[in-house]
Amino acid sequence: MHIIEKYRELGSYRAAARACGVDHKTVKAVVERAARGETEVTRARVVREHNYDAVADMVRRKVESTQGRISAKRLLPIARAEGYEASDRNFRRLVAEAKSDYRRHGRIFRPWRPAPGEFLAIDYGTWGPWQIFCGVLVWSRVRFVRVATDQTQPTTLLLLAECFEELGGVPAVVLADRIGCLRGPIVADRVVAHPNYVRFATHYGFRPDWCESADPQSKGVVENLVGYAKTDLVIASCDDWTSLAQSNIGAREWCVEINGKTHSEISAVPADRLAEEVKVLRPLPSCARRSAAGSPARSTGSPRSGSARPATRCPPGWSAQVWVSVAADQVLIDHDERRVAEHPLIAPG
User: Fold this and answer.
1) What is the pLDDT of residues 91-134, one digit of tens each?
2) Cα 152 from Cα 327, distance rounded (Å)
3) 265 in the same domain as 305
4) Contact of 216 with 243, CB cutoff 8 Å
5) By the 8 A CB rule, do 201 and 207 touch?
6) 274: helix, coil or strand?
7) By Cβ atoms counted within 10 A, which residue in 7, 101, 186, 199 is the most buried?
8) Where are the beta strands (DSSP E) in the chain?
9) Rounded to an integer, what distance in angstroms lies between the CA atom of residue 349 and that of residue 347?
10) Is 240 part of any domain?
């Protein structure tokens, strides 16, 4: 009806075609059918067969698996082996159409909408001799940044425990960027967590998860924090860092500052959102590591790790605060940055 109306208004097939965005022959056919009193065309659409239909599915699969990067030159020998006998030109046209279709409908990105208390994303960044440990509680966007001198397993687990204590609870999933000290072998592109990391996760009650390999889209929330920490924290203050303790004082002050500002992505203050999210976080275990100043300490006659106590007890009348960590199936007990005991890792009880 729109075509007929434009033709009656303009009086020309070509003028009506330009106004409707169709060919002038289409306008003529529609007008002539209306003049004959035909209101609907019921002609069956003829589907033409192509000489490359037999290999079209193979081409589509190859284009998808290579993310649209494979060329028709590489695909042609495979198509010949599958029985394609037509011209190279037709095959290039088929590959071009498959690539165009993949770019339009290949991978669709949607906003990530995590639930409160669900995900904590962690990763490391390197700046000179300093290793920047970064964590983001994804729903509230609370940032946690600390500085270390290495990326060993004891250091990473210590920082992760400190992160839980600062948040006031434990999320359901910790999403790591395939940090080497936390993972074991990779089987069929699936990461197997290190046994010590499994014990740590079991003790705190979260599920370890991993980002996809070579896929920055799945870990952008923590990658952005690593870059932000380097440009805003490290560059501005690393020249004043003379010790690890001093660098972490600056990192704590920086986290308080940025968590008190409105986040551009969520248009809210992360510290205010954390007050709501902490209600659904899992509680810290009763024998969790306490590293923050002023946090309650556990008074006991012997150190404790994972509900297991080593045979060595403190001397009578001696009172001190010790740190217990696990590395390479050994329980390490430190006092004033000095190793005072080592014991083999045993089962709880």
Assistant:
1) 999 999 999 888 877 666 666 777 888 889 888 888 888 888 98
2) 9
3) no
4) no
5) yes
6) helix
7) 7
8) 119-127, 130-137, 142-148, 173-176, 183-187, 190-193, 207-210, 323-327, 330-335, 338-344
9) 6
10) yes
Q: Are residues 130 and 271 in the same domain?
A: yes
pLDDT at 107: 63
> In terms of domains, do 270 and 320 share one?
no
310 and 348 housed in the same domain: yes
What domain range is 204 assigned to? Answer: 119-277
Residues 216, 179 share a domain: yes
> Of 205, 223, 200, 236, which is closest to residue 345 (Cα–Cα)?
200
Hey, what are 247's tokens?
A: 């660098």
Q: Do residues 157 and 197 touch, judged by C-beta distance below 8 A?
A: yes
Q: Considering just the CA atoms, what is the radius of gyration of the chain in Å?
A: 32
Question: Tokens representing 84?
Answer: 């394609």
Backbone region of residue 209 per phi and psi (left: phi > 0; alpha: psi in -120 to 50; beta: other values): beta
For the chain, how many structural domains are there in total?
4
